[in-house]
Amino acid sequence: MAQKSIFERRWVRWFIAILVWTSVGLFFASQSSLWDRYIYQSPITREQALITNLSFYYIWACLAPTVLWLGRRFQLERSTWLRLLLVHLPTSLLLSTIQLLIAEVVLQSFLTEPLNLYESFTSIRFSFVFNFHINVLTYWAILGYGYARQYYRKYRDRELQAAQLEAQLSQAQLQALRMQLQPHFLFNTLNAISSLLHKDVHAADRVLARLGDLLRYSLRDLGVQEVTLREELDFLQRYLEIEQIRFGDRLRVHMSIDPQALDLKVPNLILQPLVENAIRYAVTPRTNGGYIEISAHRENGSLRLVVSDDGPGLPNGEETSVKEGVGLKNARDRLQQLYGDEHRLKLSNKPTCGVEVSLVIPLRTS
C-alpha cells in the first residue's frame, strides 16, 4: 500500500484548518480594533477583539465540514448549476443565521453581567446588520474552496492515470519489440546450425549447446527492459561463441570496456543486433573475414557504446542499407521508447574503412 503524504494525514489537515481559521480570526481582530478606534472612537480592548473574532470564525470552522459535504454531495457541473443554486442559496442563508445566533450565545457568555431580553435582541439585530452579508460570503468562499479542491484532485488523478497508461503502453510496446527480436535471432542461429550440420556435426552440436544457454538467459530476463552492462556483455559473449564456431579465424573480436561502466544500466539485448549487423556486412561476405571492436565508456555524464568493424562501409556514406535490418530497427524503436530524446544512435563510416555504430544513453545505475 502506498504511503500517504504528510498533507493527506488527518491530524495534519485538522492542524492546517485550525491554523487557517485562527489566522482569519486574528486578521479581523486587528481590523475590528482599527474600525472601532477610527470610526466609532470607542476602541475595544485587544482581548475583546480576539474573543469576538476568534469565536466568530471558530464557529465557521465547525460549520465548514457541513458546507464541504454539501459540495461533495452536489457536484458542480454545467448541467446542474440551477439545482446547485436552489440547494446552496437557502442553505447559505440558513447556516449564516445559525452561525450568528451561536456566536451571540458564545459572546454573551463572556460578559460579566448577563443582558436582559431587550438588550439581547438589540445585540442580535446589530450583529445581523453588520455580519450577515459577510457570513453569506464566507459560506460561498468555503464552498468555492471545496469545489476547487475537488477539481484539483480530479485533475491530479487524471494526470496520474494518464502517466500510468502511458507507462503501461510503453512497456507493452517494448515487450512487443523484444518478442520481435528474439524470433529473428533464433531464426538466424537455427539457420547457422542447419548449415553447419552439412559441414561439421561437432560444431553444430556446440552451437546448439550455446543456443540453449542463450535461451535460458533470455527466459531469465523475460520482461526486463534494462540490465547491467556486465549482464549484457555476458549474453553477448555467449552469442559471439556461437558465431566464432561458425566463422572460426575469420571472425576477430576485441572488447574495450571501462570497468566503472559494468554496473550501469543498458537496454536488454541492445548490443547483440549491432554486433550481428557488423558480422553480416563485415565478416560474412569476405573470405578473409573481418575485425569487430566493441567498446563501452563513460563520456560527459553519459554511457557511450560503440560497435565498429573493418568492412567495406556504407555505400556513399548512407545508412539506408543497414537501417533496414530488423535488429537495428528494433534497437532504434526500443531506445526511443526507453529514453526519448535523451539518446543518440549514429551510424557512420570510419575514416579508414568499416562502419561505426555509436550509441549514447543516460547514466543509470542499478
Give the helix/strand layout.
Blueprint: H1 10-40, H2 46-73, H3 81-109, H4 117-197, H5 201-220, E1 226-228, H6 229-247, E2 251-257, E3 265-267, H7 271-282, E4 290-299, E5 302-309, H8 320-323, H9 326-339, E6 344-349, E7 355-362
Parallel strand pairs: 2-4
Antiparallel strand pairs: 1-3, 4-5, 5-7, 6-7
Summarize it.
By secondary structure, the chain is an alpha+beta fold.
Jot down its keywords.
366 residues, alpha+beta, Heat Shock Protein 90, 2 domains, two-stranded antiparallel ribbon, 9 helices
Give an account of the 3D structure.
65% of the residues lie in helices and 12% in strands. It is α+β, with helices and mostly antiparallel strands and 366 residues long. It folds into two domains: 6-163, no CATH class; 200-362, Histidine kinase-like ATPase, C-terminal domain (Heat Shock Protein 90). Helix 1 packs across helix 2. The protein is rod-shaped and about 120 Å long.
Describe the main β-sheet briefly: 5 strands, mixed
Classify the beta-strand content into a percent band. 5-15%
**SSE run:** HHHHHEHEEHEEHHEE
Count of distinct strands = 7
Assembly state (oligomeric): single chain
CATH T-level fold name of the largest domain: Heat Shock Protein 90
Q: Identify the CATH homologous superfamily of the largest domain.
A: Histidine kinase-like ATPase, C-terminal domain
Structural Rg: 38 Å
Can you give the mean pLDDT?
79
Identify low-pLDDT runs: 320-324
Percent of residues in helices comes to 55-70%
Number of domains: 2
CATH class of the largest domain: Alpha Beta
Give the end-to-end Cα distance, rounded to a whole number of Å: 24 Å
